[in-house]
Queue: 2 jobs
Job 1
Amino acid sequence: MKAVILDAASLGPDIDLSSIRTQVDELEVHEQSTTEQSRGRLAGAEVAIVNKVVLDAATLEALPSLRLICVLATGTNNIDTATAERLGIAVRNVTAYGTASVAQHTLMLILALANRLPLYQRDVAAGRWNRSPFFCLMDHGTLQLEGKHLVVVGQGELGSRVAALAEAFGMRVSFAARPGNEANDSRPGVAELAPRADVISLHCPLTDATRHLVDANLLATLKPDALLVNCARGGIIDEQAALAALREGRLGGLGVDVLPIEPPREGHRLLDALAESLNLIVTPHNAWITPEARQRIVTLTADNLRHWQQG
Ligand SMILES: NC(=O)C1=CN([C@@H]2O[C@H](COP(=O)(O)OP(=O)(O)OC[C@H]3O[C@@H](n4cnc5c(N)ncnc54)[C@H](O)[C@@H]3O)[C@@H](O)[C@H]2O)C=CC1
Ligand SMILES: O=C(O)C(=O)CO
């Protein structure tokens, strides 16, 4: 069985691929591939191993030998899964590989926004503390998390761990109903919970049901001091509407680890806004990157290959 890794560089140079190698007859490793290059590189292979390269319908249709796609991530939104299913190509992702890593990053964003870290860091760098008439700066009101209400969208691996960490800070947590399935869900929908939220944290996949889940209408119902954190996928928030709310004082803070197009080669309005005095944090989709999590991805992918071969 021949397998091809299309974007090994995205796992980092320190990661040992040997557990994957032992599961296949031949492993071809490419550091990075475009969608166009993928077609040629996957020709004749039974297995594609991919982190974030987009495998669209045209690509999959051009690969009659392909039987399995192993995604080196939890999110599978870069794969046309409907086409894969139609063509009989199995898709296996990895889950629970980096729960501690991503949850830690999410809490970092919540804590930094609650304490207005972007604003105070800027003030200190500008020498405002040096010129302060008294011993501290307190121009930006901070948010005590204890006693406040966290709304989590996506009661899966990551949402549940973030909830547990937030509870350790004394927060009260509500899980929103699964978007698109509110009628069959006993939990309240995010629209119902949003006006009562002090913090909203997103941990659902990007699907047609979750694209722009947090849009201008939902943002308009938030408390003006509420914090919004997205460590899931770009596009679940309408980033333009969220930035407008932040600038107009209708949102207390915005923290994102993900953007709709990554890397953002053409730029993005949130990146431009980092130059402004806003309670805004953008991290480069690196919530997951602890060495432990990246090595676990390889182990779980080897398991996926073994289980698939065993039928
Ligand atoms: N920023 C980062 O580094 C990382 C981001 N992620 C993102 O976080 C997301 C969540 O990861 P996990 O908690 O591990 O996944 P999970 O599968 O354990 O949980 C996802 C939850 O979202 C819910 N959900 C809500 N709307 C849904 C819909 N329309 N379709 C399907 N499920 C829906 C599911 O019911 C489930 O409770 C991933 O899909 C991925 O996009 C995952 C790992 C790292
Ligand atoms: O696992 C995921 O879904 C990530 O976003 C990290 O690659």
Job 2
Amino acid sequence: MTSAPQFLTSLLDRYKDYNSQSRPSVTLTFAQSIDAKIAGKGGKQLILSGKESMIMTHWMRTMHDGILVGIGTALNDDPQLNTRHLPPRDPDPSSNGHSNPYHLPRPIILDTDLRLSPRCKLLKNFSEGRGRRPWVVCAELAAADSRAEWVDRRKELETAGARVVVLDSEAGANGLLPIPVILETLHKLEIRSVMVEGGAQVIRSFFSQGVTFVDTIIVTVAPTFVGEDGVSYNASLNILESGLFTPIAFLQSSGFKYHSREMFGPDTVVALCPA
Ligand SMILES: NC(=O)C1=CN([C@@H]2O[C@H](COP(=O)(O)OP(=O)(O)OC[C@H]3O[C@@H](n4cnc5c(N)ncnc54)[C@H](OP(=O)(O)O)[C@@H]3O)[C@@H](O)[C@H]2O)C=CC1
Ligand SMILES: Nc1nc(O)c(N)c(N[C@@H]2O[C@H](COP(=O)(O)O)[C@@H](O)[C@H]2O)n1
């Protein structure tokens, strides 16, 4: 049986050869039901991954410099984005028996208008020494009339411990931060690999960039149905869906090819790479 670190290393080891890129290597990953839902009705957070695939996801977190989510996920789930499901590590012999923590990825939140709560778990964990300083990525302000509120929110977040990274660009016509500029900025800040964990809108955005900006897709498919009311990462699938695993076929038709799959507990984890 392949262990989670072996499965992931077989996929992600190739990032070492990507040093000449001017963007980080990007792993797009999420958990879905058989009917391609990533959350329940009204965005209710669902724990779709079983224990074993959740541990696989936490191993994946140790293998990236950054872990990126959208503000929708940050507000809805109040995530921690850490590695707490991994078994305790043996102490490092050179550190007098002190604990030997796993590498923690830098939390990165796409948050155009700085809506993140200064009381979120990511900031609480950082202030208590249990997490890295979160980076909040936002846009240059398009409208000067909201500047005072924006400056106040920025101060509040920085006081709570966040680093606010202002992109050298306004939000795009769709109101979203431009992915190429985000990745270029993160690369300048020494982020060489980033794990994109969702949510729906962020998955759509990265997916629409195709193979130019995504190196690996790793999808946990849990053996469960959520139903029509659930949140899908591709709205059109709700209408077009013609059978099980249609989303994977959809991904393949967009420049990615099947690489491998592995069972972790009851879940199937499917990996895709550029064709
Ligand atoms: N099963 C799974 O693996 C996962 C499930 N989820 C679920 O997903 C849901 C949240 O998804 P959703 O509401 O779509 O929120 P997202 O987490 O995808 O955040 C989307 C928001 O991020 C901001 N943003 C800024 N730039 C971009 C960009 N380039 N692309 C996309 N978003 C950008 C926008 O807000 P603004 O303009 O205000 O800045 C946008 O509305 C929750 O229900 C959560 O439980 C989340 C992660 C994983
Ligand atoms: N791998 C995975 N499986 C699921 O079933 C999920 N719901 C998610 N969600 C993602 O993980 C974040 C929560 O992380 P913490 O447990 O708080 O560390 C959540 O916000 C989603 O990004 N992932």
